[in-house]
Amino acid sequence: MSHHPNTSPRSLGWLGLSPLFVFLAVYLLSSLLSVDFYRAVYLLRPLLSGDFDPVYFLRSLLSVDFYRMPIAVAFLVASGYALLITRGVRLEERIRQFSHGAADSNILLMIWIFVLAGAFAQGAKSMGAIDATVNTILSFLPSSFLLPGLFIASCFISLSIGTSVGTVVALVPIALGVADSLGLSDAYVAAIVTGGAFFGDNLSFISDTTIAATRTQGCSMRDKFRVNLGIVLPAALIALVVYLLRGIDLPEPKFVEPGSFWLMLPYLLVLISALAGVNVLVVLGIGILSSGLIGVLTGAIAPWGWVAALGEGISGMGELIIVTLLAGGMLELIRYNGGIDYLLSKLTHRINGKRGAELTIAALVSVANLCTANNTIAILTTGEVSREITERYQLDPRKTASILDTFSCFVQGLIPYGAQLLLASKLTGVSPIAIIPHLYYPFIMGGMALLSILLRYPRRYS
What we know:
mainly alpha, 2 domains, globular
């Protein structure tokens, strides 16, 4: 008997969620188990001696090489397990349902962005656009302002274009050039851009998350923006101070001549068209065509050299595309097996007071984001339940919309299989796990959002 792609034969309860735990176990624990014996003893010795320093242990843990286990293999194992536990239908139907999730329109849109982003990044690099842009930045800005400058630029661009993925594509290659000149790690500067990208993704009027949060709760974008700004602006200012302090001791880069305006033009066109609200796929198309046209006309690159660079950039996104497809299929089976519905029912079972109601909404959207790896889908999944909680406990829908948006962006910024971290990882060549410890803004934003619930802030909307 065949089932409709959007129906579920039965609810497996917590077992339906277990593929997510299998993925995390395979990806994280296998890397920890790969640590050699002597290093493991070195890490555990303070614990055994009773002189345990949790901060030191956490730092040592984060230094583990998480590239030992390829993320694609971890998703493959978890996907096979998800197919195995799906019951009540034949194997062909299970595979069909898995493929239905992999072919979701949101998954495919991410893949098209990855393809064009890979082509643009490599094409622009090959014709000198990145070097020219970085040299111009280094020639005008003192080193102490480079890190806060990157963060402010990321916040501003993401606020203007409403997409964190587009901001990562535009700024991470430039950030890598800055990192090289200052002796900073690629993971650190990638985290600055990625963190700032979530500021705009959370606040922008044209962001998918803002639209989803306000529509599901029936409030205006302007009102939600006011509530949200009071929560996340302090977080952004704290992060900015951290980057200012971090930049004080940075060495001045050696003097460089400003880059050629013509070689910078592809990046300028990308930023201008993005700020004008042009669709991200069109923006990347403009960047690809302009990098080829300008590179050939200025003699910076031969026509076939540019074409080869585009092919190299697209091919380099192969693993990322495979990971995205596997994640989409696995997460669809979690939904199909009733894992998300079971979770929603359990989290809403016992709510005590307004503070408890708001914490439940935050937990709902956070866990849904873990299971979908898409903050917009997480908001849409939990929006109706959150609205029922809001009405039953007489919460302010503007505060609820803010909680949904903020906590979904917080979780999205910290999961190694989210589109933003996967893309930043691919552009930098480092593991997503290596970027996460440096994501100051998402961590601070999550802390401020939690305090806004516990302290009933802003008072007017609580």
